[in-house]
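Quick one, tokens below. Sequence please?
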């Protein structure tokens, strides 16, 4: 009898060990299947631009006074752009918009310019190949505006085109419209060598820089620089990991949620995957999310949150409702179907069992009353 119990116990322990091992193997990588066609996860058809302004990487945040502020990758209106230069590769600085209701947006004009505010390393630009070898172009990509509650101040991040790195600016007036100056950490060179630099403030007041290619670094308490070298986040990657961009971090329900953007591609069998190879057959520009108990990770398996809504950010309105930004990316198969592209728009979203998805009902209500 005792021997039988020992055998049964041994078998049970082996089964538990075997299942644990299989579970670890199963969660080693995120599932790359892209649920293209799922309308419950796709930017609702009713969503349309809230402004007729050329903009990519739309970013919106709520200020401490209840106003909303919008910033993004813009292009100078009416500016003659050299033939071989992309429209978004030429601008004069950062422009800001303000709204009280998310529907009517007023321009606050340029709040940081290459001409008046940039350090010498930020002014260099990239040479345009062609007859005029003295011509350079420069632009700021994917800017973000963050109100740091613990310091009651505003920080801006932006990336320079042409692989020239990213930097952080601080408002010297304490107002969102600035003026802004470089923090010490990027007074002579980029604080981060790649694109898509974001900011996250934790509940205890710690401020982090979150960056492209899965990097993070905590800032000094006075926000003048990073307090540690950038380190990689612990993630559950795709296998193999494709090109991913638009890193953004939030905290909800005591968990950290890492938002990133990845392209889906169609496979020969008609299904879709995030295992992108090159720039061919790009289909939709999607937001994937992974969650963790610790800010450095490990982050669990990624899930698709918003199809066609990539390079976004999340914010809450004065009533506590959640929103995501989007801009109608013109690239890819789905991009060819948009009536307009590169225009700022807002997508109502909601949390369902700790996972984010579009809120179709709120989207219809918002745009019906627009």
């Amino acid at each position: 009898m005792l021997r039988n119990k020992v055998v049964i116990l041994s078998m049970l322990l082996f089964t538990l060990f075997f299942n644990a091992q299989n579970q670890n193997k199963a969660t080693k990588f995120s599932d790359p299947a892209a649920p293209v066609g799922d309308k419950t996860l796709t930017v609702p058809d009713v969503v349309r631009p809230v402004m007729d302004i050329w903009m990519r990487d739309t970013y919106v945040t709520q200020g401490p006074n209840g106003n909303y502020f919008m910033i993004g990758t813009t292009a100078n209106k009416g500016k003659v752009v050299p033939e071989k230069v992309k429209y978004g590769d030429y601008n004069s600085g950062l422009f800001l918009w303000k709204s009280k209701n998310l529907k009517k947006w007023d321009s606050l004009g340029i709040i940081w310019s290459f001409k008046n505010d940039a350090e010498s390393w930020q002014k260099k630009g990239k040479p345009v190949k062609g007859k005029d070898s003295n011509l350079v172009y420069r632009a700021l990509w994917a800017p973000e505006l963050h109100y740091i509650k613990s310091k009651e101040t505003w920080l801006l991040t932006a990336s320079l085109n042409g692989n020239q790195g990213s930097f952080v600016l601080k408002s010297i007036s304490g107002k969102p419209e600035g003026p802004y100056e470089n923090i010490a950490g990027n007074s002579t060179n980029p604080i981060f060598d790649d694109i898509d630099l974001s900011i996250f403030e934790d509940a205890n007041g710690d401020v982090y820089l979150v960056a492209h290619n899965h990097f993070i670094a905590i800032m000094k308490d006075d926000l003048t620089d990073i307090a540690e070298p950038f380190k990689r986040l612990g993630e559950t990657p795709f296998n193999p990991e494709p090109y991913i961009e638009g890193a953004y971090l939030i905290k909800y329900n005591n968990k950290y949620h890492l938002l990133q953007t990845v392209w889906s591609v169609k496979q020969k069998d008609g299904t879709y995957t995030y295992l992108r190879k090159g720039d061919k057959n790009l289909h939709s520009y999607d937001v994937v999310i992974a969650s963790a108990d610790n800010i450095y990770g490990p982050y669990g398996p990624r899930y698709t949150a918003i199809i066609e809504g990539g390079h976004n950010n999340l914010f809450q309105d004065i009533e506590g409702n959640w929103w995501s930004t989007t801009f109608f990316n013109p690239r890819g198969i789905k991009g060819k179907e948009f009536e307009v592209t590169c225009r700022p728009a807002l997508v109502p979203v909601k949390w369902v069992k700790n996972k984010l998805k579009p809120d179709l009902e709120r989207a219809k209500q918002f745009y019906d009353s627009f």
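The two ends are 76 Å apart (CA to CA). Residues 1-26 have pLDDT under 50 and may be disordered.
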